[in-house]
Design goal:
Elements (H helix, E strand, L loop, with lengths): L1 H23 L4 H17 L5 H4 E4 L3 E7 L2 E2 L8 E4 L5 E7 L3 E11 L5 E12 L2 H6 L4 H17 L4 H6 L1 H15 L5 E12 L2 H43 L1 H18 L10 H10 L1
Antiparallel strand pairs: 1-4, 2-3, 2-5, 6-7, 7-8
Helix pairs in contact: 5-7, 8-9
Length: 284
């Protein structure tokens, strides 16, 4: 079923292109030839003054769509370089082929989880088909801007707030694909779409900040509890080692005294050796 639809779509596109080609290269008729001859004679009589009106310059990044008696000549844009036109019968429109960018104004959007947010973005595009951009749409730049705003609202309206914040790059890529497909018939190629800013209501910002702070406090308590547990295990192992070797306790006393003497000048009380106390206890 999908294959048949694709074949029908291709056939329709080829048919439209064929009709457009026939229309572009159609005959201008007897009256048209008479007007062209008179225009050429007028340009010849007024030469060299007419040269300023007949010769035009098209820049490297531009293309000129030339109309002769209302018809596009040869179905191909002219340029770059010099272009010759006939006065009174020929008109032309210059099309800029460079990449153009425009900012999407902030759009107030109601997300899927009923949160009101404001989103803006920027779109980068260029014109690849000069004739399509002139013949198929009245103002390609305004049309592209309006379509970008509508597409942004439609796509973000189907997303939740968390998905918008987490998948901004993926959503921007989807918007780019939709815009590129929709503007293909206008001769426009959408290069890139970026979401610049997502503004949340103040109440939502406070709620998210409180949630993040609570999560941080919970993680801090877990880390502190793990530290206490590891410290208690280390103390238990140390006490077992000291109980096995009384000399280790004396060394620990000396280390403690050394630390105290290095930090502050204070009176130090030396404890009695544990072995001496043990001897007195044995005599009793």
């Amino acid at each position: 079923m999908d294959t048949e639809r694709e074949m029908d779509s291709r056939f329709t596109t080829q048919k439209q292109q064929k009709e457009e080609y026939i229309d572009v290269n159609g005959e201008i008729g007897f009256c048209g030839w008479v007007i062209l001859i008179l225009s050429a004679l007028f340009a010849a009589v007024t030469f060299p003054l007419s040269i300023w009106f007949c010769v035009k310059i098209v820049k490297e990044y531009e293309r000129a769509v030339l109309f002769r008696l209302g018809r596009i000549i040869s179905g191909k844009a002219k340029g770059p370089g010099l272009m010759f036109i006939l006065p009174c019968t020929d008109t032309f429109i210059k099309v800029d082929l460079r990449v153009v960018s425009f900012a999407i104004p902030p759009q107030e959007i109601l997300t899927k989880d009923s949160v009101t947010t404001t989103v803006d973005g920027v779109v980068y595009y260029k014109i690849e088909g000069a004739i399509k951009s002139v013949a198929n749409v009245s103002n390609v730049h305004i049309a592209a801007q309006q379509l970008a705003q509508t597409t942004l609202r439609n796509i973000l309206g189907t997303q939740t707030l968390s998905s918008i914040l987490a998948n901004r790059e993926e959503i921007a890529h989807n918007i780019q694909s939709i815009l590129d497909t929709a503007t293909h018939s206008w001769g426009v190629k959408v290069e890139r779409v970026e979401m610049r800013d997502v503004r949340l209501p103040i109440q939502m910002q406070r709620a998210m900040a409180a949630e993040a702070e609570a999560a941080r406090e919970a993680r801090a308590k877990v880390v502190a509890a793990e530290g206490e547990m590891n410290a208690s295990r280390a103390l238990k192992e140390a006490s077992m080692v000291i109980s096995e070797s009384p000399v280790a306790l004396q060394l620990r006393y000396l280390q403690t005294l050394n630390t105290i003497a290095a930090e502050n000048n204070s009176t130090i009380v030396f404890p009695l050796p544990v072995d001496l106390l043990q001897a007195f206890l044995n005599k009793k």
